[in-house]
Amino acid sequence: MAMANNKTHCFTCNKEKITFRCEGCSKRFCFMDLAEHKQILNDELNHIINNYDQFKQTINERKQNPSLIKQINQWETNSIEIIQQKARDCREIAIKSSQTFIYDIEKKFNNLSEQIKEIHKENEFNEIELNYLKNQLIEVTQELNNLSKISIQQDSQLFINEISIISSIKKSKFTFSLSKLHQ
Ligand SMILES: [Zn+2]
Ligand SMILES: [Zn+2]
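Above are the sequence and the zinc ion SMILES. Below is the predicted complex in structure-token form.
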């Protein structure tokens, strides 16, 4: 700021006074209004500093990328829910089909048990009855082994939508030096 030789109009108060030129806006101010002008610039700098601080805070928050993490958590929760539902359905079907299958065998077995009790009570039997009872037990035992024919089939296709992280960010160029502005 160089002192002017002649009195000129101050940009702020419009009075003819000794004025000083502001290098930034090229306007001329009287001593009082120059101080005022400087104060306004000072306030603006503080405002910018505030915004910079806020941005710094935002940067630190974004490092964790909370929105992305939230989406991953949502996917995790949904996927678990889908798997649990599938497991519940399969358990229900497994129990139902096993129970139905065993119920038929149990009916046959109970019938045979009744026959044994009868024979035992009457005390009237020979090899023919004994052979029959032995063979029937072998038969229901073999039938019960068929339970292993109810089994789990695994599908190799993906049941849950798979996710992965992709980035299409291109690095931008910044002006890092204030000194370049004055060239
Ligand atoms: Zn003035
Ligand atoms: Zn200025």
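The longest strand covers residues 19-21.
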